Amino acid sequence: MPDFDDPELLREVSVDFYLDGRSKVEIAKERGLSRFQVARMLNSARELGIVRIEISTPAHLDTSTGSALAEALGVREVIVAPGGSSTSPRDALARAVARTLVDRVKPQMTIGVSWSRTIELAAAHIQHLPPCDVVQLVGAQPVEGSGNSLEMIQRFKSLPGVRTWPIWAPLVVQDEATAAGLRAQPQIARALERANQLDIAVVAVGGWSSESSTVYSNVSRSDIADAAAAGAVGECSGHLIDGAGQLVATPLNGRIVGVGLDQLRRTPEVIISAHGAAAARAVRAAVRGGIGSTLVLDPAAAGALTEILRAESAAAPAD
């Protein structure tokens, strides 16, 4: 007669059941036991700590952080991309952006797409959209090791049933006269006008730093100094915003070829993508300024944004 309290026997039976996936009937037959004896031994293994069962929500399904942020910010939804996956954090964020957009697009909608490294990756993960119009919201911003908005709009054009409205121009030019001339070109003017009819926009928000903004590294030192002096904390579609999410008045504004912030504010659904902790302050500002109804963040951005909100709450006067 076996010793039902023998720790080694309890461990072996537990391995058979929990790790090898064998049924209680199979274990009982092999060891000359009854199914009820096996069940009793499995219970004993848990009670003695030989078996410890942990139940948790996988990171990619854990919505608690996003729900808390959405409530605190007053936005429709905050989606936190999974961390610790086999892909890079940016690719995981891009996949989340792609899923979010695909879930929201309905036939005959007009979709506006800005450019960032993450949004470009997201476009590559979109295999199908219902018949719709896709408007390029900003001119091209080439970045070493990445593509640009022109390549991205061509990706959307390749999808069946999708009509595109491209902007064949740089995002930032050298002077206001050149920018005005480009914005007046018929094809570009039509795209910018079409942006007044957006149902959904997808934009990136980054901090005003070389780490977080692709525009930062493509403007002059005087532009950077002017922006800092004017209180810029972030950038969205080439436009600089302050802590309240309002447009920062600098000479750079007149040299941008793309949609304006007011066009984004009038868009019913704006999906903001943000990568890295350095973007968190800018995301907070964008939401304050009425830009963004859904946020798609990587864990670093979500964590930093949580800390910002916690600090705001601590600093708020008591009722």
From TrEMBL:
Protein's UniProt keywords contain Transcription regulation: yes
InterPro entries recorded: NagB/RpiA_transferase-like, SorC_transcr_regulators, Sugar-bd_dom_put, WH-like_DNA-bd_sf
Transmembrane segments: none
Record family assignment: Belongs to the SorC transcriptional regulatory family.
Record Pfam families: Sugar-bind (PF04198)
Name of this protein: Cro/Cl family transcriptional regulator
UniProtKB keywords: DNA-binding, Transcription, Transcription regulation
Origin: domain of life: Bacteria
Keyword DNA-binding: yes
Domain Sugar-binding as annotated: residue spans: 64-305
